[in-house]
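Allow me, if you will, to draw on your knowledge of protein folds for a short while. I have a record of one protein: its chain in single-letter code and its fold written as discrete structure tokens. Kindly check, if you would, that the fold set down in the tokens agrees with what the sequence suggests. Thank you for your consideration; the sequence and its tokens are set out here:
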Amino acid sequence: MNNKVSSETQGQALAVAKSIKKSGQTKEQTKLIAKGVEKGISEYKKQQKVKSRQRDKLKKQQTKAKIKENITVEVTDELAFEYKSLLPWILLVLSWFGFILYSFI
């Protein structure tokens, strides 16, 4: 596993370690505290990346679902329009066919 930490994170960790430094604390102890803070910062960043990816995936799925729903609605509307426009013609043809049959009988 790659445990390389950016210099920015190291700088932040060192600044935090120095800000909470107690009197009589050695340089080595401060470095250990800085390493612990550094690890915490890197873990936090990893968690945020994971959360961000999950949010992006969810957003993408929702967008796909909306698009699919819109396409379904459009196709249904188009089919309904076609049947509505054909219905009067079908009824007209059937009525004329009925009149012709009635006149021959």
